[in-house]
Amino acid sequence: MDNSVPHNEKVLLIGLNTGQDDYDYSMVELRKLAKANNMEVVGRIDQPLDEPNAATYFGSGKVKQLHDLVQTTGVTTVIANDELSPSQLKNLTDQIGVRIIDRTALILEIFAQRAKTKEAKLQVQIAQLQYRLPRLHTASNQVLDQQTGAGAGFANRGSGETQIELDRRVIQRQISHLRQELKNVQRSEQVKRSQRDKSSIPTAALVGYTNAGKSTIMNELLSRFGLVKDKQVFTKDMLFATLDTSVRQLTLPDQKRFLLSDTVGFVSKLPTHLIEAFKSTLQEAAKADLLVQVIDYSDPHRDEMIKTTERTLSEIGIENIPMIYVFNKADKVDETDYPTMEGDSRVIISAKNPESIDFLAKTIKNKLFSDYVQADLLVPFADGQVVSYLNEHTNILDTDYQTDGTRLKVELSPEDLQRLSKYEVQ
Ligand SMILES: Nc1nc2c(ncn2[C@@H]2O[C@H](COP(=O)(O)OP(=O)(O)OP(=O)(O)O)[C@@H](O)[C@H]2O)c(=O)[nH]1
Ligand SMILES: [Mg+2]
């Protein structure tokens, strides 16, 4: 036996091509998702159809072809590119005889594997139960039939329905219990969040397609501009390496500070329940002053990835926040000049290149602090605490000790200037 071959589950992909532009890309993505779930894709069947067959997703001829291919390849799972209705799922399972899952269930399985923090685990569990709720009859009926040894008799139907009703209530109770637990876990996070809200430090949020390099950029910025005690975030070459949100403070050489958050990556057709469950995690992005969309410049599907990210952001309700586009991994694209800027919101960089990281930091700074102003202040010696504040929070361009106090030329936020206006020298 060849031990070098991993014993992964063998799967078949099925997709319905209704003529949508991004069909091929969505199938490429489905393959990547299967791989991320340790599955080995051994085949794929596509059917061009105007709309899915309401009963079986594929038309009857294709279902037959699928059945035969499952037999000859010995696959144990079939994955549909679209979310299947409860009855499509049941009918297909009955006719094909192996496990059928859809894109949503696959994404949920990956998230369940990746979730590490208590918060992420609870969020995924809730989304999984919500997904199962309308699909109970597909699994539990079969289990019930097996338990009772009964066929499809009338007597069984009544007890089956009661059983489903019971299961449904159990799951609903589990969901509300988990929601409560999630609320408790999030309470402590909320305290941190509201403290940050009060701090009035500008914030930027890294967003984008999964595996684009968001966490790598976060770490590189941290190691140059972060606090020594700050922990690095997890990065890896796999889909959905990050499921929770991390926020770190960065201080640039001219004392300008901002908060940067790193969060879960996107993929097309992210399950609604998952988006719902992750909404609070994504609050950091919702409140940001600037979105930093990271894109894998070396991926041929990068334009579709940008569309996916923007569609997901608007589904979460994140709109009208200024954005810069960071085309990352330029080192993987031959004959590319980097770091460079195209127009006033597109940057081409490589996270692995220190010069790129400085360039990106400067670009973020220019966007976040564009309303900062220069002012000339004279602070009497008695108000020493004001000078300390300025030292810590603003960029001091010049200091001069005069007989009536400290004269400073500073760069500061309009809010700070307003508060300190009595010291301003006109
Ligand atoms: N060659 C190259 N690889 C990079 C660059 N930036 C990131 N990577 C690699 O890309 C992979 C994914 O990086 P991550 O930072 O984990 O990506 P992410 O966007 O946080 O992904 P998710 O958390 O899954 O959304 C890792 O293997 C990184 O080492 C880059 O500029 N050049
Ligand atoms: Mg990440």
Give a verbal description of the structure:
Mg(2+) binds at residues 215, 242. Its cofactor is Mg(2+). Keywords: Cytoplasm, GTP-binding, Magnesium, Metal-binding, Nucleotide-binding. One of its GO terms (molecular function) is GTP binding. Residues 1-5 and 140-156 have low confidence and may be disordered. The protein has 4 domains: 9-113, GTPase HflX, N-terminal domain (Rossmann fold), CATH 3.40.50.11060; 120-184; 201-368, Rossmann fold; 373-423. The protein contains 14 helices and 14 strands. With 426 residues, it is of the alpha/beta class. Helix 1 packs parallel to helix 4, helix 3 packs across helix 6 (136-148) and helix 5 runs antiparallel to helix 9. It starts with 8 loop residues before the first strand and ends in a 7-residue tail after the last helix. The protein is 46% helix and 20% strand. The radius of gyration is 27 Å and the shape is elongated. It has helices spanning 23-36, 60-73, 86-96, 103-114, 118-132, 136-148, 154-199, 214-225, 272-278, 283-286, 302-316, 354-368, 384-393, 414-419; strands at residues 9-17, 39-48, 77-80, 99-102, 203-208, 246-251, 257-262, 290-296, 323-328, 340-342, 346-348, 373-379, 395-402, 405-412. The structure holds guanosine-5'-triphosphate and magnesium ion. Magnesium ion binds next to helix 8.
SSE layout:
Elements: E1 9-17, H1 23-36, E2 39-48, H2 60-73, E3 77-80, H3 86-96, E4 99-102, H4 103-114, H5 118-132, H6 136-148, H7 154-199, E5 203-208, H8 214-225, E6 246-251, E7 257-262, H9 272-278, H10 283-286, E8 290-296, H11 302-316, E9 323-328, E10 340-342, E11 346-348, H12 354-368, E12 373-379, H13 384-393, E13 395-402, E14 405-412, H14 414-419
Parallel strand pairs: 1-2, 1-3, 3-4, 5-7, 5-8, 8-9, 9-11
Antiparallel strand pairs: 6-7, 10-11, 12-14, 13-14
Bound molecules: guanosine-5'-triphosphate and magnesium ion.
Residues 210-216, 235-237, 239-242, 265, 294, 328-329, 331-332, 350-352 line the site of guanosine-5'-triphosphate (GTP).
